[in-house]
Automatic annotation (TrEMBL):
One Gene Ontology term, aspect cellular component: MKS complex
InterPro entries, per the entry: TCTN1-3 (IPR040354), TCTN1-3_dom (IPR011677), TCTN1-3_N (IPR057724)
Subunit note: Part of the tectonic-like complex (also named B9 complex).
One GO term of the biological process aspect: smoothened signaling pathway
Segments forming domain Tectonic-1-3: 184-327, 341-522
Transmembrane segments: 572-590
Protein name according to UniProt: TECT2 protein
Top-level taxon of the source organism: Eukaryota
Family classification: Belongs to the tectonic family.
Keyword annotations: Cilium biogenesis/degradation, Glycoprotein, Membrane, Signal, Transmembrane, Transmembrane helix
Keyword presence, Transmembrane helix: yes
Annotated Pfam families: DUF1619_N, TCTN_DUF1619
Length: 596
């Protein structure tokens, strides 16, 4: 349908109290109401209002007074939520002050109700004068609330709207202060502080495996990480002229040595073929090595070696960052920690004391790609972390069983390039008492005949089991110290059988070989042997047995609080009387007496 509003008179002022500011009237207002009816029943109504303004410009004064926001506890800022249009009257919004009385008469019977219509402070159900509840209990006049509408759950101080300013955590941390000593020194795990009271940061790997550029360096916690970056995403780290708090409120300067990278192939992992004229290169940091010389709770010296090289556009750089803590009392570059025991997550120290070079390794597999043993790399065994890894070995159908056993054993033994394991994290190579010998349980080897069958090999040592026994032997500065007591290596054998594929056209099968590491904690001292008295007493120990005979008469004691003592005593005597009566009646002479 189409509704047309035509002009039949001259322009007049829209507002009755407006003054004549122009020689001609300003605008014209026309209102039309359209009803939709079915018979005598009205189904819908439509209100149409047209305002025609003259083409004029505003020449009045603009008020520069600031808007005063009232107290929100007593007068809400949005007292008329249905007022959605500025400078115009909103239809059916009776609280809109821009609606003239003439306009309000048009929709006075269809105003918005509730909070949206401006009733922002309605009477609540607990008010004595409220009649909104359909069912009013009899006790309502005694427990209702007698209050004015200026103090309700919606307005006033019925609910005090007090708020506290949130404390935003800062990246800066306060120094540990005490009278006469501004800084108490570092403890293991404390973040290292700079002169600006900020963390000393070096890029490190997060739990998700990604590198974090602003990760704090913890005291006595070294690391060696590698981070991938490109020329577009490269960012410079913390400047090397930043001075570090030594732990006594003194500040030390970093000793920085710059070197140039000669072999870029060790750091550039990917390169795109670009024309020489289009390549953009920049001198960046390839590696940074930090050495902290410490003593007690203080840092004595910081040596930094920075390796610089040229990184071009389209290349992927593998940056390396290492942090190492060396004691001031160390000799020959050998680290002597004040915290000698193993910490969870630290690599287990291994040594080959039968060779000229005592440096050894204890590793497990870290498969990559298809998981084949040929492409698998190694990762060290971490103290206190039970691990399970493996790889897949390709075996042909005509494989000799003896050769297969030797090949699998060789790959498993390659994980353990050591004869001894360090008892502590600072075990010295020159002191044999600091090491425990690895106990090897070789796989049972016997001449097992397969009956000439092809593709079947029994007794294949495919599983390597590493068991490390440790104990807690003390504590340093409240940190528990663990020490390795024994290490055992054993093998588990399996029966390998060639798996025939579709039509048996494949000539290779797969043999999974695994390596597991288990840490077993035992008491530092063996427990005392149990005496004969303790074995007998264990039968009457209420904490170890479901039936507790010593507490048979517990309800008759003063410690029982389930009921009054007089009642429990009466019930106990009555129960004793029944037991005595049953004993008397079960006696043979009682039956003879009863028969008489």
């Amino acid at each position: 349908s189409k509704v047309t509003v035509s002009l039949t008179r001259t322009l007049e002022l829209c507002l009755p109290n407006a003054t004549e500011c122009c020689p001609s009237p300003l605008c014209l207002v026309e209102t039309l109401q359209v009803l939709a009816c079915r018979g005598s029943v009205m189904l819908a109504q439509l209100l149409i209002q047209a305002e025609i303004f003259a083409n004029s410009s505003f020449t009045g004064n603009v008020s520069e007074n600031a808007t005063i926001i009232p107290n929100q506890a007593f007068k809400p800022l949005g007292s008329c939520p249905c007022n959605l249009t500025a400078g115009a009257c909103d239809v059916r919004c009776c609280c809109d002050l821009e609606c003239t009385p003439d306009l309000q008469q048009l929709f006075s019977g269809s105003c918005f109700t509730g909070v949206f219509g401006g009733d922002v402070n309605p009477p609540y159900d607990q008010l004595c004068s409220s009649q909104s509840m359909e069912y009013t209990p009899e006790w309502f006049p005694f427990l209702c609330v007698q209050s004015s509408l200026d103090n309700t759950p919606f307005l006033g101080y019925f609910y005090h709207g007090s708020t506290s300013t949130p404390k935003v955590p800062s990246f800066k941390i306060p120094l540990q202060t005490s009278p006469g000593k501004p800084f108490t020194g570092y403890r293991e795990g404390d973040p290292i502080i700079t002169e600006e009271d900020e963390y000393f940061t070096v890029p490190q790997q997060s739990m998700a495996g990604q590198c974090v550029g602003n990760a704090p360096v913890a005291y006595l916690h070294g690391f060696d990480v590698k981070c991938l970056t490109s020329l577009d995403s490269y960012k410079e780290g913390l400047p090397h002229d930043v001075r570090i708090n030594s732990g006594t409120a003194d500040f030390i300067q970093q000793n920085v040595v710059y070197r140039a990278i000669t072999d870029r192939g060790k750091f550039i992992t990917e390169s795109e073929n670009l024309l020489a004229a289009e390549v953009l290169c920049q001198n960046v940091t390839f590696a940074e090595h930090y050495k902290f010389i410490w003593k007690d709770k203080n840092i004595e010296q910081v040596n930094v070696t920075v390796f610089l090289g040229s990184l071009c556009d389209g290349e992927i750089l593998t940056q390396r960052f290492t942090v190492e803590f060396l004691s001031l009392n160390s000799t020959n570059g050998e680290e002597l920690f004040e915290n000698p025991g193993y910490q969870v997550g630290k690599p287990v120290r291994a040594a080959n004391l039968n060779a000229s070079d005592p440096l050894g390794s204890l590793n497990i597999w870290q498969p990559a790609g298809r998981g084949l043993c040929a492409s698998a790399t190694y990762r060290p065994v971490l103290f206190g972390v039970d691990s399970y890894s493996g790889c897949i070995l390709e075996v042909g159908i005509n494989e000799d069983c003896s050769f297969l056993r030797g090949n699998v054993t060789e790959k498993l033994n390659a994980l353990i390039q050591a004869t001894h394991i360090g008892k502590r994290d600072n075990s010295s190579y020159s002191d044999l008492n600091d090491w425990v010998e690895i106990i090897r349980l070789d796989p049972f080897s016997s001449n097992v005949s397969t009956g000439g069958l092809k593709g079947i090999c029994p007794e294949i040592p495919a599983n390597l089991n590493i068991r490390i026994i440790f104990a807690q032997v003390g504590a340093v500065q409240g940190i528990p110290q663990q020490q390795i007591l024994a290490v055992q290596i054993s093998y588990s054998t399996v029966l390998w059988q060639f798996q025939c594929g579709l039509g048996c056209k494949n000539t290779l099968s797969f043999l999974p070989i695994t390596a597991s590491v288990q840490f077993i904690e035992v008491p530092a001292r063996p427990p005392l042997p149990v005496t004969r008295y303790q074995k007998l007493y264990a039968e009457f120990d209420c904490n170890r047995n479901e039936v507790c005979w010593p507490q048979l008469l517990y309800p008759l004691t003063r410690f029982y609080t389930g009921e009054p003592y007089s009642q429990s005593l009466a019930k106990g005597l009555f129960l004793a009387f029944l037991v005595l009566l049953a004993a008397i009646m079960s006696n043979p002479w009682f039956s003879k007496l009863w028969n008489r």
